[in-house]
Design brief:
heterodimer; A: alpha/beta; Rossmann fold; Dimethylsulfoxide Reductase, domain 2; 31 helices; 30 strands; globular; B: mainly alpha; TorD-like; binds iron/sulfur cluster
Chain lengths: 830, 219
Amino acid sequence: MRKISRRGFLKLGAASAAVLTVGSKFTNLAGAMELKKVGQDFSPITNRERKAIPSACWQCVSRDGIIGYVEAGRLVKIEGNPKLPRTNGKVCARGQAGVNQVYDPDRVLYPMKRVGKRGEGKWKRISWNEALNEVTAKLRELRDNGHPEEFMFHYGRMKASSGKIIKSHFLAAYGTGTIGNHTTICEGGKWVAQELTWGKHYDINDVTHTNFILNFGCNLFEAHTSHVPFAQRAIKAKAERGVKLVTFDVRLSNTAAKSDEWFPIKPGTDGAVVLAMANVVMSEGLFDKDFIETWTNVTVGQLTSHLKKYTPEWAEGVSGVEAEKIRSLAVEYAQAKPGTIVSYRGAVANYTGVETERSIKMLDAILGNIDVKGGTCKAVGAKWKNSFKKPKGHAKKLNILNGFKGDAAYPNHHISHRVLKMIKDGRNGRPQMYMVYCYNPVYVNGEVQENISILKDEKLIPYYVNVNPFYDESGSLADLILPDATYLERWDWEDMVSYDQIPEYYIRQPLVKPLGEARNFADVVCEIAKRLDINLGFNSAEEFVKDACEHTPGVKEAGGFEFMKREGAWYDKKAEPLYKSYTKKLNPGDYTGKDILFDKETGVYWNWKKSKAKNREEALKKGYTDTKNAYKGYVGQKIGEEVFLGFKPDKVNKSGKFEIYSKLLEKKKFNPLPTYMPVPEHQKMKSDELILTTYKVNVQSHSRTQNCKWLTEIYHENPAWINPETAAARGIEDGDRIRVRSHLGKILTRARVTEGIKPGVVAISNHCGHWEYGRYASGKIVNRKATDVDASLKWWWRKGEHPNYLIANSPDPIGGQLRFMDTVVTVERV
Amino acid sequence: MKSSPLPRSNLYGLLSLIYNRELTAETLRELKKPEFRETLSKLNIQLGGDFFNKPEEELLLDLTLEYTRLFIGPGRHISPHESVYREDKEDKGLLWGEATVEVKEIIEGAGLEYKADYKGIPDHISIELEFMQRLTKYEHEAWESGDREKACRCLEYEKLFLESHLDKWVPLFCDKVMEEGKLTFYREMARLTKEYISLEKRYVNELLSDSPKAGQIVD
Ligand code: SF4
């Protein structure tokens, strides 16, 4: 190496003086330097104060209350907030590893503008001012041309106040309704089934008081949308009261392992078992006659005859679960009353998911387990009040949110995985500007390759902005990246549902300032609004949260914003869980009035003015069921001579009864009563074909936690689970390299041969195989030499494989749910 | 032996400026001046023909893109922050680690503060180099005013900061830049930085062992 002499250095030092004169404005330290005695200020300061700040987690959608410990300006630890009964002060591993989100060494710290071709990876940092000039110029242009709907905003997770600020205030005021979400890659089908049946979505399994937990396809001890609150109560019920837990799952998850009994079941057939159990309940006379005849819209006779064909023997043939087991389990479950059925993606993320969930809700209904103590209850969450007026007016939207014509009968939660295909198709228009927020469309949807090619194509999507604290697979294809704050650096009020049916009010507040130039996007939209001359009425997310704390009954009296900043949470200590809310009787005054109509066919009282009917006559003529958005005017349900609150509808014009018989489905040519609809592709499988399913584990959330070093150190590889019998037939041994192939393509991975999975199935988790998202997720580091410091900071090299390359972006025919659990594949040894 | 801290300080300042952000046209023009070029070439630092011959605008863009690719990302890049490299710390491989807090405390303990509009992280390489620039300048002023005690205290600080921070990671950082850099400019600057730090470490140690402790200096 060419050595430099000391003399040379000094010369260069002298010559540097001139450069420094022009560079002096770039220094970053200020103040006079007053040195103190050596040793006095250098020693590490012991007893540094640790500030404890209550806030809320966001590592998964459960959004549990947390406390962050900040020491010398650095977030060092996260624990649960004991002031919130939902978690009793506990968090899961992902919650603790939130620290890693803030300090991810690959965070995007500045607004970045693409310089090379889209996806080429050439970037330039620009100032926020430049970035927002660019964004607002485009927004202004679209709005001035009369096409604000050509601005599409697509989010993955956007909840509580962030959702209110960005969607209900900013986007509404701007005038675009082209707003996408991601519910159909989660559990959209489950929600649609619930909306068709009992109205609002989200069910709470009241495990604290139940006598029996029957579980179809939910890994509740590892992953659930209310993970810690639910897991905690379920395990307590088991440990302290010996409550039985029986799990149906294709795979021996940690939940299945902790269950009293695990039934390996063929993917997509949970519904068959449920229907057979219902059959047993009816034929054995174990049903709750009163609930069926009063609150549902079917009779005992109707049900008995409908269910007749679904015998346990038939279900055994379909699902592989022994008929005798089904029979005895049905009796045991019915007699244990109250019981509660848990279900999630294992049961619903497939072709027949909506019917499975409908069957599940029917089974709980005919046993009288609905909304009773210890049963399956409706969700209760906080109801925050803000004083700012929401913008009124009609937002135009591109018809690209609900998939293609005929994709799904009731896409109540849109069909997000079809959006890129719709854009490619172009017949319903294309957004000129596409912005994603907390959403990685390339990675989280199926057909990864196609997603990439669509996002890369500037003809299909002329301008694409990615709002993100990190550089993920979708960010790498953007034209502009706006660095978002992580959840630990921002404000929110939170409202996640409670597992005790008591509303809990809590907030998220910054534990540290956003790193670098990152900014909370909810604050950024306030600035964009100003630049577009939109008056939102507030200037920041903090102001919005403060306003809610000062206006929400209960929170306000407790001490408002200052109280919430200090405690993090408030709930009414005297509140009691509200069971059986559907039995609430209405007074005549509640359901009489000049705009309230009575619909004879359904027995529903409804206010036609809240629907889309043009006038009273039209409303009367079309009736409740056929008037668009009539459900919005739902008032009550007539039963006998009285009117009750009933099962209030949401999203569809369901009556106020618990609808086991769905007229709405009948109208769309589906069977009105819960039915088993076999997965069509499974009916014509060749003998060497297998079914691919996906799953989640306890230390990762779907796609957003793999940048966390602590978590990915624990879980970074996802070998394909395969049964010894299935493996042997293919000459596969544990650890072998295998090729998994679907009609879309193939991936290479490794086999984990285990009895913990049903023969004929291969299971690959959803968490691995990132090719961006920072060094810990993707393994992308500058130098992989063993001697390099990067290598010693990260001892693992495998990063697993992403199964979504193999999974089609196809929807279930009723709810539009992405079918994560029923892909047909072949597997071979490499 | 009496040190000449002013050129040392300037060189720290120069390096701090180089890593601080993308070069501006103004800075670039200064760097290209014949006097500077000459000094560099005497030092065996070759910034490459392109550096002096390319049209300014083009060169500036090249340098900007290279700076971004090397030190900002997004995605795979060489983090310019100390804590990411400190294997000896428990929270290694992450931003704003224990090392960052130490750096911040040393700097603030020296009576300096981060400017209110500084948006970076406290252990960015340019901050650490700027701190050395300030320390050596202060040392220079002490010598000038004949305050040997103060000058020696400065030297102690320099030694501490060099040994417990810069030397713990800057050589690793520079190796990466030398390996990964596509433009000669940043590769050569990294080489210069690495050698300078190593020289400085030796030099400050020598000086301190030569000089009697503060208060007992005999010139
Ligand atoms: S379950 Fe874990 S990751 Fe999810 S909100 Fe609770 S602590 Fe956070």
